[in-house]
Amino acid sequence: MAAGYAELLRTRHAARLLLGTLVGRLPNATAHVAIVLFVRSEGGSYSLAGVLAAVYGLATAAGQPLLGRAADLYGQPRVMLPGALLSAAGMGLFAFTGLDPLPVAYAAVLVAGLSTPPLEGGLRALWPGVVGRQDRVHTAYALDAVAQEIIFTVGPILVTLSVVLWSEAAALLAINALGVLGALSVVVSRPSRDWRSAPREAHWLGALRSPGLLALLGAFFFVGTALGSITVAAVAYSDDNGGDTVYGLLMSAIGLGALIGGVVYGARQWAGEPERRLRVLTGFLAAGYLPLALVPGVAPMTALAVLAGLFLAPALACAFIVVDRHAPRGTVTEAFSWLVTTFGVGAAAGTALAGPAVEAGGVRAGFAVAGLSGFAALLVLIATRNVLAAPGGGTESGPVVETRGENDRNGAAEPGFRAGRQA
């Protein structure tokens, strides 16, 4: 698969789009880390830090599918760059005003979250037009899942390094400036400027009229809850075991584990239904979260953090394929943005739950929220396995026939990959 990745990256525009999207997503990927550290530096409590991070997550959750639908309708450049600029302005206001007055801090974080551009969904909409063949789209999704874990590995390091060199406020400003540059790189590229979504049937529910997509989003809400709770619990653990450096180490270890797992997962083409494989991967992901509640010393805790992240990228790569198989025609960016939204809402719930859990039951209770959330995600996938049956009875590796999928109650055409560039 290393050769497959190299071939993919040599495809015109592929490396630029991937790198631009990764840089453009840094503000969103590191926001929970940066907000928690900034609030703590301003003298705020764990609960306040969790609530502000939750506001950002909920605002992102609301904004992503709306902006994703706008990108499907009006094209990417008209949505992505203005969103990035407005989001950076919101975080800049938060960095300059701090927690006093508190209503301004809430408003600034709210604006930053609402206007976060849907770069993640946008990239997945572009992949088919950039790489061509369906098997290369599979490879692109795997590379996408692997590469985005670099954000979760490098992002916390960049935040903590900025804090050490300058301040928590400077970290917020620097990360968001990089985000604007990444979004600019994407939207001025030819694929982004030329891309148009497939024709869609007008329906107020958009992508959400697919029961299969709804089932997937329900499961990944709890994956987001697990990740959000780890963010707060890891801060509390680090306060007792070495401070911000240990926190950055733990969060980067989770990203490193996901990176390793994604590379291994992408080393082969998988046969059979991805919906079934996703249940297995989510089960392993949930099992990896449980040992964190042991809260041992820093070295073994770091190793457990790597284990906790090991199945994250494989589960995400598989989920990307499932999203594309269940999204109604012409809603691809919106559908992928709903997956981002699910993470945002779940992470917000996780941070909001973990703060009181840590204050009531200590660090162990905060990490227990993650373990329970992981198994809740697995239960959702098991309970909805009939709904998530492969559209049209096909498999990921088999031939794809354009049919009217049962998941689309409005009768929209359901090709196996519907993210293709349309004139």
UniProtKB/TrEMBL annotation:
The chain crosses the membrane at residues 17-39, 45-67, 79-99, 169-189, 210-234, 246-266, 278-295, 301-323, 335-357, 363-383. Residues 212-423 form the Major facilitator superfamily (MFS) profile domain. It is found in: Cell membrane. SUPFAM superfamilies: MFS general substrate transporter. Keywords: Membrane, Transmembrane, Transmembrane helix. InterPro entries: MFS (IPR011701), MFS_dom (IPR020846), MFS_trans_sf (IPR036259). It holds the Pfam family MFS_1. Residues 393-423 are annotated as: Disordered. PROSITE patterns: MFS. Its main location: membrane. Coiled coil: none annotated. It is a multi-pass membrane protein. This is MFS transporter.
